[in-house]
């Protein structure tokens, strides 16, 4: 199928990808617009993942107050350059992450930060619950593992479903932005306070 300039322009308008990449995507997808978009997204994600080891020392501290001052969030998001730190897209992402923290109360950024003792405690609870439900011993390890993974999804910011689109996680939302911005983006730390609670969530 012939790839026209108009097709390339439409794809560029939809994805912000460079013209050459748009042409290649349409060629790979045999002119299928949706497949070309998917191809560009996958390419962007792969490139974004490669950027993860680049130093991110610029950025912003986003502050957000919710429910008439009942919940407060402060989150530090880093990128590589001051130019990107001032960009609207980066600031929007920082705001969305602050909203996520306010709404979903994560305790950690990544699963690696969860103390082993806490995971063991969750595993013990899951095991006891599965036994109580009369599950046979041979399936207990699988059930326990599944419930511990679910716990990680709930308490880790990067593993939580994005509140505006539950088909993607916060990690994927960040990767999509990294692909578009062209720089590494890192959630460095956060704090969430709720009025009347005895202690805020740790970073």
Describe the structure.
52% of the residues lie in helices and 17% in strands. By secondary structure, it is of the alpha+beta class. Helix 1 crosses helix 3 and helix 3 crosses helix 8.
Throw out a few tags for this protein.
203 residues; alpha+beta; Helicase, Ruva Protein, domain 3; Tetrahydropterin Synthase, Chain A; GTP Cyclohydrolase I, Chain A, domain 1; 8 helices; 17% strand
Short précis:
It is built from 8 helices and 5 strands, in the order αααββααααββαβ.
Mean pLDDT: 88
The CATH class designation of the largest domain is Alpha Beta
Most strands sheet: 3 strands, antiparallel
Name the helicity range.
40-55%
- The overall strand count is 5
CATH topology of the largest domain: Tetrahydropterin Synthase, Chain A
Number of helices: 8
Order of helices and strands: HHHEEHHHHEEHE
CATH architecture tag of the largest domain: 2-Layer Sandwich
Rg, nearest Å: 21 Å
């Amino acid at each position: 199928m012939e790839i026209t300039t108009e097709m390339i322009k439409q794809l560029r308008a939809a994805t912000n990808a460079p013209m050459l990449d748009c042409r290649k995507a349409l060629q790979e997808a045999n002119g299928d617009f949706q497949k070309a978009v998917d191809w560009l997204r996958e390419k962007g994600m792969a490139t974004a993942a490669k950027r993860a080891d680049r130093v991110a020392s610029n950025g912003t501290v986003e502050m957000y107050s919710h429910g008439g001052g009942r919940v407060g969030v402060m989150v530090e998001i880093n990128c590589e350059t001051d130019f990107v730190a001032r960009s609207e897209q980066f600031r929007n992402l920082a705001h969305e992450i602050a909203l996520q923290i306010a709404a979903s109360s994560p305790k950690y950024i990544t699963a690696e930060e969860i103390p082993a003792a806490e995971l063991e405690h969750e595993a013990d609870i899951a095991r006891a619950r599965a036994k109580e439900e009369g599950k046979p011993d041979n399936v207990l390890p699988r059930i326990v593992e599944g419930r511990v993974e679910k716990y990680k999804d709930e308490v880790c910011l990067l593993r939580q479903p994005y509140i505006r689109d539950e088909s993607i996680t916060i990690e994927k939302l960040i990767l999509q932005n990294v692909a578009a911005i062209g720089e590494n983006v890192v959630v460095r730390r956060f704090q969430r306070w709720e009025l009347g609670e005895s202690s805020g969530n740790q970073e």
